[in-house]
């Protein structure tokens, strides 16, 4: 989602993806929750807590440290059936995970 709060949705292996740019006053946690909720079409209050998927304090600290040192960081984790990739703290990419297609696992449907 851009700074205007709108997200770019595009198909990725049958799923949807958003690229989020965090606002200057928005926490990383808030941006992730807002974006996953928008991608899944649910209210933020209907999501599991982010703490169940990632150590939020450690993530925020790592991103702050990386920004202060002008270094690059990439953190990837799964939350609510989505893959969340944080790069540098300003850009977040979230993609819906898709179940494997049956042809990838012969004999299963």
From TrEMBL:
Annotated region (Disordered), positions in chain: 1-23
Record InterPro entries: HalOD1
Domain annotation Halobacterial output: ranges: 25-95
One family name in Pfam for this protein: HalOD1
Basic and acidic residues composition bias: residue spans: 1-11
UniProt-recorded name of the protein: Halobacterial output domain-containing protein
Species whose genome carries this gene: Natronoarchaeum mannanilyticum
